[in-house]
From TrEMBL:
SMART domains, sorted: LRR_SD22, LRR_TYP, TIR
Keyword Thylakoid assigned: no
Name of the protein this chain belongs to: Toll-like receptor 21
Domain TIR: 795-942
InterPro entries, per database record: Leu-rich_rpt (IPR001611), Leu-rich_rpt_typical-subtyp (IPR003591), LRR_dom_sf (IPR032675), TIR_dom (IPR000157), Toll_tir_struct_dom_sf (IPR035897)
GO biological process, one term: toll-like receptor signaling pathway
Compartment(s): Membrane
Domain of life according to the entry: Eukaryota
Organism taxonomic ancestry: Eukaryota, Metazoa, Chordata, Craniata, Vertebrata
Assigned GO CC terms: plasma membrane
Pfam families noted in UniProt: LRR_8, TIR
Length: 953
């Protein structure tokens, strides 16, 4: 009651102190917690109208993303009029079909607009009016068939216009609509239904340099000679019907990249009739299948220029290249690309024997199966080659000295093959190599000479192979290596010197291996340089808390990932596990089924900024008070789905810099607002899928979430009540919590004062009465009472003897022999002999009183001071006075004055009502005769009936 009173008083204070302002939450959007009110995402919402989605966003919004809202079909006029600062607007991947003409009114600062992947079939002529700063517009993948006249006339700042994947057919209409766009640089019309570039008397903007018209149905260009005179990048690929003669007289002098893949153009004839500069044409997919066609091309190129930058020959079906094929070409000083062909081998690049100046050679997506040794007597060396790529082939083996002819390459890509054999000297001679990609192969072993020449290597990627052991000296010469990726292998351990040499290592990826422990002895080589360590999805687990920290000397480590240890997680987090990691900024512990987090588990992580514990723990784990006490710099904490049932200040109260808190999918039914208010920097709170109850215990939380101007409560207005999903948490009925608040407080105060006053009096006057009533009620409640009453009719004992243990000698030597012996046949109940073992003592007393015809109280001064004896006489006197049964016999062992008995009210009442017996002591004249008379009177009293004959006897 006191707690509820405190809550109600707090509510009153809050209502008086907090102004009625709009709560910091949004119906359908989430603010990026790092954007400070400028970036919002509205994803997977159920609204059909744009206004309903964005109506509650603040005017400070600059970046707005509205994607994957499948019911969204309409953008009504002035939907964004209250968001005048929007600069970047994404409304892609929805099902938009209709946009009103004034939909983007007042967005004068808008710079980019993405309407891709919708179902827009028609644009209003005034749709883009009033957007003077728009420089990027994408309408990709809609159903547009035509454009209204002058649709883009107001977009004088537009630089990029993307209209690909529509159903546009009229190029003249397009040309006219963009002719006034004086800043347009890129126009993308790919994947439409254009058949010609014929147009009315307009020109493309002088600023336009990039034009994509791929995948249309062009059969002619049909344009003026100067129409493409300023274009630098022109893509006409996949216009299958486009003939060579379509380029007759067309000015292409400014074009520095032209794609003609999958057209009907004969490139040799094209070069003969075109004024394009040699080497600016991409010859990929132009049907150059054999030496004859390639030689013819090279001869034509050489007639036009002495050297060219690039030679791209992808997708031509080339199978063989002889040593003299490209010797007819002019000098190539840039790229040679033979990807997506069908060569049988590279022949150590012998077909490039006279092209010694190329800088990059690419042969990807081919069917290469082997890289042979290239250390021969007549080997041609390509000393200018800096990059070599054989990705996406079927290479099984790389032989020794496979790259001896390319000694100066800096980047080698052998990834995504099936390399199972890498000769120990395969990389011999590559002393300038800086980046090596060997990921996604079938390598099982690395040797200490494999990388002996790569002392300049900075990045080594060996991810997703089948390596199980790292042998001694494997990386010994890699003193400059910065990034080592061994993730996705089967590594079980490192030999003692397996990581020696990695003196500059900064980022080490070991995720997805079979490591069972973290060997601290291996870290000493790079303990001063390592910043990132990824150990996700290994077999690491602990069964004892007494584990020495494996990270003790990694003083510069800033990013540590320990997520998802297989098969059952870490299970236990040792107390000192993170000792020494004072520079750690990010820690990942998700999916680990930890059963216990020690209160000092994170004490060493004083510099931590980001911590994720999502699904890290066994459901129902209790976070100990102070577990985050030293994380003073933590800004982002994710504790989703870890079974938290009590969000308390003792646990979270020390996170004074916490900015973002994700509590999704936990079990709290209520949250203490004091705990939230102890996080002064909190700006983002995500509590989706938490079963908060809509009761008075959460009224403070409701009020806090509605009127807190600083903390974004994610989807507050969509938050359901539990278990009543139809009701919402933000507006559940709280009237019952405020009804007659003043009267309630008055009455509760009055009752409290009355109880404090009356309780001591009742305790003094009615203590035994109430205690007796309690025991009787308890016996009755457990059906003991009924059993006792049934037994009364056929009593088990003649008398129950109530006495103090100090008088036990008299009972055993005098009372027992004279009542159960000496010719008497009485059956007595004694507590030390007849009480039932294991039963509550109170139940035994009640049973004894009601199972005996009489109760004999052996009264002495010790008896009067005994609490249990008092209870026994209380029970017997109850039968005497309230049930009118003559069941109580008092036997005084010693003389007790009336003054000493004055405080024992029940005893005095019995003595006034009943005659009692006094035991004759040794001071009598004839004690033997007196004692015989005593026993005779006691036996007579015991034989009398239990029902009183008269009111007084």
């Amino acid at each position: 009651m006191a707690s509820l009173t405190h809550q109600l008083l707090s509510i009153t204070a809050v209502l008086c102190a907090v102004p009625l302002i709009t709560g910091y939450s949004f119906n359908n959007c989430i603010e990026d917690p790092q954007s400070y009110g400028t970036s919002f995402k509205c994803v997977n919402r159920k609204e059909k109208n744009m206004s309903a989605i964005v109506h509650d966003l603040p005017s400070s919004a600059i970046n707005l993303t509205i994607v994957k809202n499948t019911p969204l079909q309409h953008i009504s006029g002035k939907s964004f009029v209250h968001l005048p600062k929007i600069q970047h607007l994404r409304i892609d991947h929805n099902l938009l079909s209709r946009i009103d003409g004034s939909a983007f009114q007042n967005l004068h600062q808008l710079k980019s607009l993405n309407l891709s992947f919708n179902n827009i079939s028609e644009l209003s002529p005034s749709l883009f009016e009033g957007l003077p700063n728009l420089n990027f517009l994408s309408l990709t993948n809609n159903t547009l068939k035509q454009l209204p006249k002058n649709i883009f006339s107001d977009l004088l700042s537009l630089e990029t216009l993307i209209l690909r994947q529509n159903f546009l057919t009229n190029f003249s209409e397009i040309a006219e609509s963009v002719s006034l766009l004086i800043n347009l640089r890129t126009l993308d019309l790919c994947c439409n239904s254009l058949t010609t570039l014929n147009h009315s008397n307009v020109s493309l903007p002088k600023s336009l340099t990039t034009l994509y018209i791929c995948r249309n149905n062009l059969f002619t260009l049909g344009c003026k000679q100067s129409f493409l005179g300023r274009i630098e990048v022109l893509d006409l690929s996949y216009n299958f019907k486009l003939p060579t003669m379509a380029f007759q007289g067309v000015d292409l002098r400014q074009v520095n990249y032209l794609r003609l893949r999958s057209t009907n153009v004969n490139v040799v004839e094209f070069l003969n009739i075109s004024n394009i500069r040699a080497g600016h044409v991409d010859f990929s997919g132009t049907g150059l299948k054999n030496d004859t066609l390639l030689i013819e091309l090279c001869t034509m190129l050489k007639m036009k220029a002495m050297e060219i930058s690039n030679m791209r020959l992808c997708c031509n079906g080339i199978r063989n290249l002889t040593t003299h094929t490209l010797s007819y070409c002019p000098k190539i000083k840039g790229i040679v690309d033979l990807s997506r062909n069908e060569p049988k081998g590279t022949q150590c690049l012998n077909f490039l024997n006279k092209q010694k100046y190329i800088k990059k050679f690419t042969s990807e997506h081919n069917h290469l199966t082997n890289l042979p040794s290239c250390k021969t007597k007549n080997m041609v060396y390509f000393k200018h080659l800096e990059e070599l790529s054989y990705r996406y082939n079927r290479i099984l083996s790389v032989n020794s000295y496979a790259f001896y002819h390319t000694p100066n390459i800096k980047m080698l890509k052998l990834n995504i093959n099936t390399i199972a054999f890498l000769d120990r000297k395969a990389l011999k001679g590559l002393k300038r190599l800086e980046t090596l990609r060997l990921d996604n192969n079938l390598l099982t072993d690395l040797f200490n000479v494999t990388f002996e020449d790569q002392f300049r290597l900075q990045t080594l990627n060996l991810r997703n192979n089948r390596i199980s052991v790292i042998f001694n000296g494997t990386f010994f010469n890699l003193n400059n290596l910065i990034i080592l990726d061994l993730g996705g292998n089967k590594i079980t351990y490192f030999e003692k010197s397996g990581l020696d040499g990695l003196k500059s290592l900064s980022k080490f990826y070991l995720d997805g291996n079979n490591l069972k422990r973290i060997d601290t002895s291996l870290h000493h080589v790079f303990q001063d340089t390592l910043t990132v360590l990824d150990l996700q999805s290994n077999l690491i687990h602990f069964s004892s808390e007494n584990i020495y920290s494996p990270f003790m000397n990694l003083r510069n480590l800033s990013d540590l990932k320990l997520d998802g240890q297989r098969p059952y997680g870490l299970t236990l987090l040792p107390r000192n596990f993170f000792r020494g990691l004072h520079s750690l900024k990010s820690l990942y512990l998700t999916n680990n089924r930890i059963s216990h987090l020690a209160p000092d588990a994170f004490d060493e992580l004083t510099g931590l900024h980001f911590l994720t514990l999502d699904s890290c723990c066994i459901d129902g784990i209790q976070l100990q008070p102070g577990v985050f006490r030293n994380l003073k710099n933590l800004t982002i904490l994710a504790v989703e789905n870890i079974g938290i049932r009590n969000f308390s200040k003792e646990v979270f109260g020390n996170l004074t810099k916490l900015h973002t808190l994700q509590l999704n999918r936990n079990g709290m039914q209520s949250i203490n607002v004091d705990a939230l208010e102890s996080l002064p920097e909190l700006r983002y709170l995500d509590m989706r899928n938490i079963p908060l109850s809509c009761t008075c215990m959460n009224i403070l939380l409701q009020n806090w979430s509605l009127y807190n101007p600083n903390v974004q409560f994610v989807y507050l207005y969509d938050f359901p009540c539990t278990p009543h999903e139809k009701h919402k948490f933000y507006n559940f009925d709280t009237k019952v919590c405020y009804i007659d608040l003043g009267e309630y407080l008055f009455l509760s105060t009055t009752v409290a004062i009355f109880l404090f006053t009356v309780t001591p009096l009742l305790y003094v006057k009615l203590y035994w009465k109430m205690k007796y009533g309690y025991y009787v009620f308890r016996s009755w409640f457990s059906e003991q009472w009924r059993r006792i009453r049934e037994e009364e009719e056929n009593c088990k004992y003649d008398a129950f003897i109530s006495y103090n243990s100090s008088d036990e000698e008299w009972v055993m030597e005098q009372l027992l022999p004279n009542l159960e012996g000496n010719g008497s046949s009485f059956k007595l109940c004694l507590h030390h002999r007849d009480f039932e073992l294991g039963r509550y003592i109170v139940d035994n007393i009640v049973s004894a009183v009601y199972s005996s015809r009489k109760t004999i109280c052996v009264v002495s001064r010790n008896f009067l001071q005994s609490e249990w004896c008092s209870l026994e006489i209380q029970l017997a006197s109850y039968r005497l006075f309230d049930e009118h049964r003559d069941v109580l016999l008092l036997v005084f062992l010693e003389s007790i004055s009336e003054r000493q008995l004055s405080s024992y009210h029940r005893m005095r009442k019995v003595m006034l009502r009943k005659t009692y017996l006094q035991w004759p002591g040794s001071d009598c004249t004839d004690p033997t005769q007196a004692q015989d008379l005593f026993w005779s009177q006691l036996r007579t009293a015991m034989r009398t009936g239990s029902r009183l004959q008269t009111e007084e006897n």
